[in-house]
Amino acid sequence: LLVLSCVLTYVFLYYQNVRRYPKGPLPLPLIGNLYHMNAETLHEDLHLMGKKYGHCFTVFMPRPIVIFTDYSTVKEALITQGEHYGGRSHLVPDTLLQKFVQTGILISDGEVWREQRRVSLRIFRELGMGKNIMEAQVNRSIDELLVQLKATNDGVSAYDINFPLQLCVGNVINETLFGYHFKYSDSATFRFFVDITVKHLRMIKDNLSVMIIQAWPWAKHLPIIGTIGYKEPKANIGKYQAFIEEEVNKAAKSYDRNH
Ligand SMILES: *[C@@H]1O[C@H](CO)[C@@H](O)[C@H](O)[C@H]1NC(C)=O
Ligand SMILES: *[C@@H]1O[C@H](CO)[C@@H](O)[C@H](O)[C@H]1NC(C)=O
Ligand SMILES: *[C@@H]1O[C@H](CO)[C@@H](O)[C@H](O)[C@H]1NC(C)=O
């Protein structure tokens, strides 16, 4: 009887809580809306739900996520009321990308974010953002791309330019940040890191363990769920962070304050 009343209370509180959010498809206790969501067609499903619920609704994955599906609601949230919607979740999977809490510019918020943004913009301007030196950097990357396209295909057969393009864009960023770029013939390091990123996305995308930890952060300490949803992706992306740290340290050593 005790168990039953606990369950009923839980269910009651669950739906009390659900009522606080914009109305959407019916969630079930614990699993939320996971029971009818299909990862393959998610974008289309959400679009249809938007039509039904007035372009603003909640899905429980199982953590509540409020979705906007048309231009004017998105614009109102992100531009008109940007201040209110500028917060970050501080949850997995976002925080997997942070080596330390509230760092970086993508997933920090509030004062920290503002400060980071200000400093980053200033540094990027010093490095030539919006000026000719950056244009020259972009040109060098494109030259590299062209050399490589000429060298690796006969101009007749179909050719996958996915990787060459990635390398080209990545090289612009690397030139700016670290002052060097990767030649196509010497892009093993680059590939290694692209693979880490791709692997990361594969690990966190539509992954139940990740969603569970997102809904109940303490779950990262559980066996299996914690390993799949937290420890493994963290270790994977950690290799990337270690590389950046190494590069930054190298650059810091050769940095001339009086320059
Ligand atoms: C970059 O390339 C474009 C196209 O070839 C050229 O017009 C431009 O002057 C180049 N810019 C620099 C800074 O080299
Ligand atoms: C810069 O090079 C590193 C190492 O190869 C690579 O992981 C990274 O993706 C490059 N930067 C960008 C922004 O692509
Ligand atoms: C979650 O990730 C793990 C490890 O990356 C994988 O083995 C598992 O199949 C994934 N589960 C789902 C539902 O995608």
TrEMBL record:
KW Transmembrane (keyword) present: no
Signal peptide range in chain numbering: 1-20
Domain of life per record: Eukaryota
UniProt GO molecular function: heme binding; iron ion binding; monooxygenase activity; oxidoreductase activity, acting on paired donors, with incorporation or reduction of molecular oxygen
Keywords: Monooxygenase, Oxidoreductase, Signal
Record family assignment: Belongs to the cytochrome P450 family.
PANTHER family recorded: CYTOCHROME P450 FAMILY (PTHR24284)
Protein name: Cytochrome P450
